Amino acid sequence: MKMFEQLEKQNRSVSRFAIYVYYETDNLLYDYAKFYLSKLKAICSKVIVVSNCKLDSVAQGWLTTRGFKLVQRGNTGYDFAAWKDALSRMDLKQLEEYDELILCNNSVFGPLFSFDELFAKMETRKCDFWGVSLHPAIGVIQKTHLQSYFLVFKKKVFCSDAFRNYWKNLSLPSTFQQAIEEEIKFTPYLEDSGFTWSALLDSRLDIKNYIDIPRNNPLLSLQNGSPFIKKKVFLAPYSYYFDRGLVKDASSSLDWVAKNTNYPVNLIEEYLIKKLYPSQYKSIFHKNYVIDENANSCLNEDVVKRTAIIFYAYFDDLCEKCVPFILNMPEKSQVFIVSSSKKTLDKYKDLLSQSPERKIEFKLQENRGRNEAAYFLTCRGVWDKFSYICLAHDKKLRHLPKVEGDSAFIHSFQNVLATKGFVLQLLELFENNERIGMVVPPTPIHSEWQGILRVPYGPNKGICLDLLKKMECEESLDPCPIAPYGGNFWVRSSALLPLLRIIDKEGISFFPKEPLALDGTVLHALERIYPEINRKEGFFTAVASPNSYVSAYFDNLHYLARLYSNQCLNLSEELAKIPSTRSFVVQKLKQKLEPYPLIYKIAKNLKLLLTAKRSI
Questions:
Q1: Distances in whole angstroms, Cα of residue 45 to Cα of each of 150, 389, 441, 457
Q2: Which residue has the higher pLDDT, 257 or 452?
Q3: 506 Cβ neighbours under 8 A, 6+ residues apart
Q4: Alpha carbon of 462 to those of 469, 471, 475, 526: distances in Å?
Q5: Residue 323 contacts by C-beta under 8 Å, 6 or more apart in sequence?
Q6: Residues 385-424: tens digit of each pLDDT
Q7: Which of 398, 413, 372, 377 is closest to 315 using CA atoms?
């Protein structure tokens, strides 16, 4: 331990020069990069930030006022071209002022621990240049090489003719694959030039069994001392994790960082909420909560007092079914019942009069906008007074048989207001995770709801995009929206502010007039983009369900998976019976020409001639 402490002190006196390459598609300088650069600056005499994107004046000011030299360039040639650009601005005499050169980029989060500690560890390795991880050789295709997200070179290397000649002769990569090939060639080139190298993880892991450890086994990489975690661990499509059996890697890695380091994981969360669709974020971190509806809760009474339900009643024949669910709200919470029918409101007043201890307000609204108008216009003041709001309304699917309509009602209510214990634990979920903005039921997949999986937006796609543009949200639609189909869900009061601002401005005109179409209205579109609005405010959307519902839902999923699997198998078998296009055409021509011997003979000879030419 004393040896490492001495090495850390020794490393602080080393003069280092770093080139950090940065690129983000939205041209923003994110806080994870600011954290990295601040730590890098602490161990370097000079840091050049090469941005392959056009940073705004705020980002430029942040960098320059903190002593970073900024080079802005187009996104050509990837990292290697950017490093070459920066190095070309310095002559040998300038480089000789430094003891070490660091080439790095923003493809990782970190450092997870002190750079001093990293450099102290690597000082014990007798080598001329080093990196954090290596990629093993793949047969004769590529040699073992250092991965280029963090490379450190001693003066012996970066002042050599071999090093300068490499950059002088570097052709700018025009594709990502060409950039990868430069990484593959770089280490063997320097090794062939007589320099020795090492990797932090090299002596700790049996890497022969892994390809790209930081990405494909991030937890192993972290447990063995890596100061970084690759962004690609979190940004790949879910199919990447699923096909390789890596579906727990992202969540396990982030949990490990939170528990074992002092790194502010909120920087990772903020970035990923911004970069990922709500469904992607939910999937890679498995933000699905199974709640025991019979468990006890020790929730603070103050939280309950900051909780409300806005309930819209449309069908007076559903009052008796809905009231038991409404009464599952905690007694100290506030209840708002809204309807466009005085008769319906009176019925709820009568049924709820048996609970005089509850704070209940009844509001009559214009017959326009249904439950959405009740949520965001009639009860607009609720959003300013309470922290957590349950949004719910009665439910019928009049275009479906009654049994299927009833199942939709059960799905909507049991996953939002199952029991008193369920509601209290759900509130604990909000209290314990400040990033949760919405909690919705699982996507319904039974009976007619299966169509949502195939065509989630239906006739609402254009309306959704228009609304997102109006609210200055990302104008792209989540391919697999985790929307609160049915309109019942829980929300943090600060999560839907862009929508509230629009309705504040437009009032009742925002909502369509009656009679309401079965689909393709602003109300149907809103239902699908709530998670996108929530995302804009820096929150993620979670799914919650009581354990009694999950057991049946799991079997529905398994049935659906088997059903689709069998359909794919049947389709492939049918396709196998269809002859290839070429043989099919030849067969048909033969049938047509056989009655004409001369034409048939000419066609046959022509075929032989063409076949012979192809074989030459």
A1: 17, 52, 53, 54
A2: 257
A3: none
A4: 11, 14, 11, 12
A5: 348, 351, 352
A6: 999 999 999 988 655 555 566 888 899 999 999 999 999 9
A7: 398
